[in-house]
Target: 4-hydroxy-tetrahydrodipicolinate synthase
Amino acid sequence: MHSTDHPDFSGLWIPLVTPFHENAVDHNALHTLTTRMRQAGVSGFCACGSTGEAAALSHEEENAVLATVLHASGGLPVMMGAADCHLGRMLDRVRELGRQPLAALLVPAPTYIRPSQQGLLDWFTRIADASTHPIVIYDIPYRTGATIELATLRTLARHPNIVAIKDCGGDAAKTQALIDDGALQVLAGEDVQIFSNLALGGHGAIAASAHAHTEHFVALLRLLASGDLASARAIWAPLQQHIRGSFAEPNPAPIKGWLARQGWMSAELRAPMMPASEAVIDQLCAIQLPELPTMQALRAA
Model:
């Protein structure tokens, strides 16, 4: 089982978008967004993941984003995305981030390289050895080009500093095996798989679509954790339309468009990302969700 010395990654984590205004990070909007999410009852935040357009940020911008999120998080745990395809640069970055008060580093396989399984073992092991923070493996082969096999993940799970996985691997059997093993906390990384992942025994979710209707997602995960699948299904059914719309065009364009319609930030992205079509944003904004059960009932759950 995962060490009790490490943070608990259960519940809903928000992989925060990075707001821009005239191509600069809009820190006021980011602070306000983080505060809103915190007040909605989320468990934690992820800064500078793929939803945060980290690939389009300099390390200086990433550091400034992290400072804003930490300030606005109100003590909620924050994990930080750390990605590269050059091991030396990656280890330097991991050591630099070691000075920050983080819950974990979210680390994918090296993009573009497509290493062997032994290469992936070496990559994650050397990063975990160098990090003062726990490592959450980000298994997302359609972005990295690398598939982390179950045997490789089981070996990595024996490392005392590798504690969880953001599961975007698209392999239901592998997901179930990891949940059954219990060596890693398994977090749903594909929003459409939140219900099945949690119902099978997964621990939580890192969900970009939960920037909207956040309280509904929080309620969903609480009900799933309590085993009340019937009540969870009643919330999940209408959320699925929102999730499909959130990923109808490349993430995070639709959700940024929705946030812009609320007046919370600009819909601006950095090239080569393009704003979502008005039709997709119209569809997202037209979705109506039912009222939630009372907070007292959710706390009881």
